[in-house]
């Protein structure tokens, strides 16, 4: 049995009983052919009431928020068509620093357009990572699909984006979401192939748009596979603590365990809390975004992200012009 971790928090593991239950239900049989992300685009979305969302996120609630990657594992458990070997990450941790065994992930200074995402789902407060992207509305944030919708299930509430978060500091404030978007394949089926979501945030108290204040990354879709990427995120499970930004760089390779996802992975040991963090083509945070942190496997220091094809492009387009 292959054990996996989800990227958002720490590695996630399925118990043997859970795997057997999914297998007996047909979840691991007759796996679909590998996807290139080019299926007919279909987009799901919801409008949010942002009243009180910024005030809701006190420092105490931010500190105690659960890593959102656990939601990826729950989506799989509800009957994802993909293999039951997927990930669910670990519990939040208050372990400080990265002392001891060195990590692949490198500590980074805050980047103005990369930040933490906080939201409520099913009565639980969660944390992910996200990135402001250039868009027609100047207000779009890219993150993981499981950070906007249960997959399938309810959408997030109390959703805020905190760019350049650093050890509790929010230099650009909390940007509340007015709408959330995800591929229908994620929102209706929890299909890990399409684990990407976009939030459209409100203007700030001065009426300024997000990317006019913090900048925004370009985006790319339908690119060649096997590119070199740099991923960013706020891992919080040990040996990290979620207080600062980290990055990983490497050449992408296909997931050998679940090829039907069509995902690619790079060497990276970021843990829970990093879900939804951006993948940039090339070295550093100045490149165009072309994926997000989605999941990983226990015992394997590789982070996987979805292929951004036509479906995710259509989702971005819907969010960007709303």
TrEMBL record:
Keywords assigned: Signal
Record-linked SUPFAM superfamilies: Trypsin-like serine proteases
Highest rank taxon of the organism: Bacteria
Keyword DNA repair recorded: no
Compositional bias ranges of the Low complexity kind: 92-103
This protein's record includes keyword Glycosyltransferase: no
Range of residues in the leader sequence: 1-30
Region (Disordered): 72-107
InterPro entries linked: Glutamyl_endopeptidase (IPR050966), Peptidase_S1_PA (IPR009003), Peptidase_S1_PA_chymotrypsin (IPR043504)
Protein name: V8-like Glu-specific endopeptidase
């Amino acid at each position: 049995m292959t054990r996996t971790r989800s990227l958002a928090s720490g590695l996630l593991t399925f118990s043997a009983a859970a795997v057997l239950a999914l297998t007996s239900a047909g979840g691991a049989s007759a796996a679909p052919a590998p996807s290139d992300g080019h299926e007919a685009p279909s987009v799901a979305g919801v409008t949010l009431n942002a009243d009180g969302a910024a005030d809701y996120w006190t420092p105490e609630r931010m500190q105690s928020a659960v890593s959102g990657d656990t939601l990826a594992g729950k989506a799989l458990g509800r009957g994802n068509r993909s293999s039951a070997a997927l990930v669910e990450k670990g519990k939040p941790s208050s372990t400080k620093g990265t002392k001891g065994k060195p990590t692949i992930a490198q500590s980074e200074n805050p980047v103005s357009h990369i930040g933490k995402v906080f939201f409520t789902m099913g009565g639980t407060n969660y944390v992910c990572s996200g990135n402001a992207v250039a868009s027609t509305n100047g207000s779009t944030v890219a993150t993981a699909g499981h950070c906007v919708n249960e997959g399938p299930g309810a959408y997030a509430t109390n959703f805020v984006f905190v760019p350049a978060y650093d050890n509790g500091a929010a230099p650009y404030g909390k940007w509340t979401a007015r709408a959330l978007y995800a591929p229908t394949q994620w929102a209706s089926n929890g299909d890990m192939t399409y684990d990407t979501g976009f939030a459209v945030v409100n203007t700030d108290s001065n009426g300024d748009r997000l990317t006019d204040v913090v900048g925004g990354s370009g985006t790319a879709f339908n690119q060649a596979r096997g590119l070199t990427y740099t991923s960013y995120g706020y891992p919080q499970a040990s040996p990290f603590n979620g207080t600062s930004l980290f990055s990983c760089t490497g050449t992408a390779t296909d997931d050998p365990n679940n090829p039907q996802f069509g995902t690619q992975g790079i060497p990276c040991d970021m843990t829970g809390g990093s879900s939804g963090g951006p993948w940039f083509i090339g070295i550093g945070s100045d490149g165009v975004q072309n994926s997000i942190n989605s999941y990983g496997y226990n015992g394997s220091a590789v982070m996987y992200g979805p292929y951004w094809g036509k479906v995710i492009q259509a989702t971005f387009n819907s969010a960007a012009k709303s």
